[in-house]
Write a structure and sequence with these properties.
Elements (H helix, E strand, L loop, with lengths): L2 H27 L2 H11 L5 E2 L6 E2 L7 E4 L1 H7 L16 E4 L8 E4 L15 E5 L2 E3 L12 E8 L13 E7 L7 E9 L3 E11 L4 E12 L3 E3 L4 E5 L2 E13 L3 E15 L23 E2 L8 E17 L2 E19 L5 H4 L8 E20 L5 E20 L3 E21 L4 E18 L7 H4 L11 E17 L4 E12 L2 E3 L10 E3 L2 E14 L4 E21 L4 E24 L2 E15 L4 E2 L19 E2 L11 E13 L2 E12 L2 E2 L9 E2 L2 E12 L4 E8 L7 E5 L5 E4 L4 E10 L1
Parallel strand pairs: 6-9, 13-17
Antiparallel strand pairs: 1-2, 3-8, 4-5, 6-7, 8-9, 10-11, 10-42, 11-12, 12-15, 13-14, 15-16, 16-18, 18-19, 19-20, 20-21, 21-22, 22-23, 23-24, 24-25, 25-28, 26-27, 28-29, 29-30, 30-31, 31-34, 32-33, 34-35, 35-38, 36-37, 38-39, 39-42, 40-41
Length: 747
């Protein structure tokens, strides 16, 4: 463990103990009657999760899980940030993007995929209302009217299937119910921010209820283009989304219908040229958050439209429930990016070029069908079996100013059979076992190439005839876990899980006169032990886990470098180990503190694997090189895998007549993170941090809340990613924002 890790962990533990000491002293001095009166108010609420596709207390599930809901969730997304705002808000979870609000990338316990293409495969699965969102555009669905977020760490290959070698982020929206309820929330703030969100629901008949949820988010353009002498021409967005749900609750069948839509128009990630200096990862004098110098047309615009629908049916049988979930998701759109970061004059160097890439997603269609049968009895044995079918197809049209436009087509079909069973051995011990068989097929073909490309006109490019590709694989995944109740308030768990990510095809390089690439399937074996406890009369919840995993044939994306490519490769092995813990402590009835810490050590193990490092010797490569000047990456950490994540939050409220005033603050610290497969002095970050603050008044009599908030209140400039083929281009986190909001609820 590094000195940094030890010091951060010590700070976290000491902070918790100090809070406990400060908070307990007035309680000990209080009258006995006051202690009895306040004890119930101090108890933490029971958290229910569906990580195993059935409702359970989070303390009873033998998996490392963290949740977000209520005020914690609202605070994170108060300024209208996209789904990547979850980055470093949960120990072990990281997120980033080089595609604006459109295509996020997620990492759990250090495992993810840095591929920026619209056809990228990821080992973190996103589940929205029990439907998998496989394509990166579907993963960027805006979050609104959310009931709870579950971050389920480690491979989940039994119940959720392929492409879950890292874990799952599961989102559940608020469902319809018979009781009438509604809310309206409006937000206004800096950078021209104006957001409006609301929902209304209730019973239509004795058996039928409905809920409609709507979202509108706006940020004005705020970034100047010094090359064209234009002010406030980039950085803004408009996001519109809606969801309509109907819930039928009959004597023998329940039916939940969900239809949702999204319309987004905004700005791609802002690439900033030479904001790093050779030999340093610090942002230099070329960096100005409010200004870029783009010489390319298009102003980094992007827009996407999506809609989807699902139908969940629950049939109550004798001692069993039969569930069917049928879903369809569709999307299209695209964006343009000035990926070299601007005009050479901005940095005062002699680099020549205008690297602009436009990508269009064509006719994405995803269809899924799940059927499962689950026991519904109070006996010691519980079980569920089922089947799953997945079918997806889409096209990607990559347009380059030099090579022209090239279209490729991707297809994927997969089916699986699964089963899982838990047995209560006695009052203290539960054991769970599961298995899943998956069959997966991917296809790839090339359409038109180099259309209207200048390279073809001058004879630099030649049309290559690439044969269609079809790859298939099957796999048996399994898991075995146990949960032992050491006391009524503390349980120990152990879990061994096997996971599978299907083979992948990347055809982006066809647009640049290079062949497509294929990565073999990867498999993971994961081991973890942990403890979950509710202590101090249910006022302190402390959960933690130790883990170790080995990935065979880990899939990697060799991106950029002097070759300017995007090729899939496999390393022999990837190894990761570490720990994470989460805590919530109700110090007083009106004071809560919480947070967590994670440590991840990851390592690539392949003594022959090489990648092309940065172009033209512009960066300081720390890895050894072979005769072809390629970097040997054996022993390197996984890319975009934070070694440590620290999260802290606190809430204090002041009761007043008819309501309360509360203060909520949160802080996150990200440890050392390498950006690429190779290591360099420039392309890494350390000690990135952000802080948020909210002060609000809640009126209980009239069910409204008004508050002021700030996100990234210190205006920290954090390097989130980079582009390395011709200069030291980087992109950074969201700017500081302040705002006011008002929410009123109706019952």
């Amino acid at each position: 463990m590094t000195l940094f890790t030890k010091s951060v962990l010590s700070v976290a533990v000491n902070a918790a103990l100090f809070s406990a000491a400060v908070g307990l002293s007035p309680v000990l001095m209080a009258q006995e009657s006051d202690k009895d009166q306040n004890a119930k108010q101090q108890e933490l609420e029971t958290i229910t999760v569906t990580a195993q596709k059935r409702s359970q207390s989070i303390q009873e599930v033998p998996i490392s899980i963290a949740t977000l809901s209520g005020e914690k969730f609202d605070a994170i997304f108060s300024s209208g940030d996209d789904i990547t705002a979850l980055a470093i808000k949960v120990p072990g979870l990281y997120a980033e993007t080089s595609n604006g609000r459109a295509a996020p990338r997620f990492y759990i316990r250090g495992l993810g995929n840095t591929d920026f293409d619209l056809a990228a495969s990821q080992p973190v699965s996103i589940i929205m209302d029990e439907v998998v969102m496989e394509n990166v555009i579907l993963k960027s669905t805006p979050l609104f009217d959310v009931q709870q977020v579950e971050v389920i760490r480690g491979p989940q290959g039994t119940l959720f299937g392929r492409n879950t070698t890292a874990g799952i982020i599961k989102f559940d929206s608020v469902k319809p119910r018979q009781e009438y309820d509604a809310y309206v929330k409006s937000t206004a703030g800096t950078l021209g921010m104006f957001n409006l969100e609301g929902a209304v629901g209730g019973g239509l008949t004795d058996e039928l209820s409905a809920r409609i949820s709507l979202l509108s988010q706006h940020r004005s353009n705020w970034i100047d283009n010094s090359f064209t002498n234009e002010s406030d021409v980039m950085g803004g967005y408009n996001e519109r989304a809606g969801r309509l749900q109907f819930l039928y609750e009959g004597n023998a069948v329940d039916a939940l219908f969900n239809v949702h839509t999204r319309n987004y128009d905004g700005t791609s990630s802002m690439f900033r040229k030479n904001i790093l200096s050779p030999g340093s990862n610090d942002l230099n004098g070329n960096y100005d958050r409010d200004t870029v110098a783009y010489d390319a047309p298009g102003r980094n615009r992007q827009s996407y439209d999506a809609w989807g629908s699902s139908l969940k049916l629950d049939f109550q049988l004798e001692g069993m429930t039969l569930t069917s979930i049928t879903a369809i998701e569709m999307a299209d759109g695209g964006g343009i990016g000035d990926i070299d970061g601007g005009n050479p004059d901005q940095a005062g160097d002699a680099t020549v070029g205008n690297a602009v890439t436009e990508d269009q997603l064509r006719d994405l269609e995803q269809r899924t069908q799940e059927i499962r049968l689950a026991s519904d009895t109070d006996g010691p044995l519980s079980w569920q079996v089922g089947g799953f079918y997945f079918d997806s197809s889409f096209g990607v049209n990559s347009i380059d100013g030099f090579f022209g436009a090239t279209e490729v087509f991707h297809g994927n079909t997969s089916w699986a059979l699964f089963g899982q069973s838990s047995y209560k051995v006695n009052d203290k011990l539960d054991v769970t076992a599961g298995v899943r068989y998956t069959d997966d097929e991917k296809t790839f073909s090339v359409g038109q190439q180099n259309v209207d490309g200048f390279a073809l006109v001058i004879g630099f490019a030649q049309i290559q005839d690439y044969d269609p590709i079809k790859v298939t694989d099957d796999n048996i995944s399994w898991e075995l876990s146990a949960n032992y109740r050491l006391t009524d308030k503390t349980s120990l768990f152990a879990r061994v899980a096997d996971g599978f990510r299907a083979q992948s095809i990347q055809g982006r390089d066809v647009a640049f006169e290079a062949p497509p690439s294929v990565a073999d399937s990867e498999t993971i074996m994961s081991y973890e032990i942990g403890a979950k406890s509710d202590l101090l009369d249910n006022t302190l919840r402390l959960n933690g886990a130790l883990f170790y995993y080995v990935i065979d044939d880990i899939q990697l994306s060799a991106i950029g470098g002097e070759t300017q490519g995007n090729q899939l490769i496999n390393a022999n092995k990837g190894v990761g180990y570490g720990f994470e813990f989460d805590f919530d402590y109700r110090v007083l009835p009106n004071l809560s503190v919480g947070g967590g810490f994670s440590y991840n050590n990851t390592e690539l193990q392949d003594d022959t694997l090489t990648v092309a490092p940065c172009g033209s010797g512009m960066c300081t490569v720390l890895d050894p090189r072979n005769a072809q000047d390629l970097a040997l990456i054996d022993g390197n950490p996984f890319p975009q895998a934070p070694e440590t994540i620290l999260t802290l939050n606190a809430r204090y409220d002041f009761p007043i007549e008819s309501g309360e005033v509360y203060v909520y603050g949160d802080y996150q610290l990200q440890g050392k993170t390498n950006l690429f497969l190779y290591e360099s002095a420039e392309f890494n970050s350390n000690n990135n941090y952000e802080a948020g603050l909210r002060v609000a008044y809640i009126n209980y009599d009239n069910n409204y809340e008004v508050g002021v908030f700030g996100r990234n209140i210190t205006d920290a400039d954090n390097l989130k990613g980079a582009i390395d083929f011709s200069n030291l281009t980087g992109f950074v986190n969201e700017p500081r924002t302040f705002g006011v909001d008002f929410k009123i609820s109706f019952y």
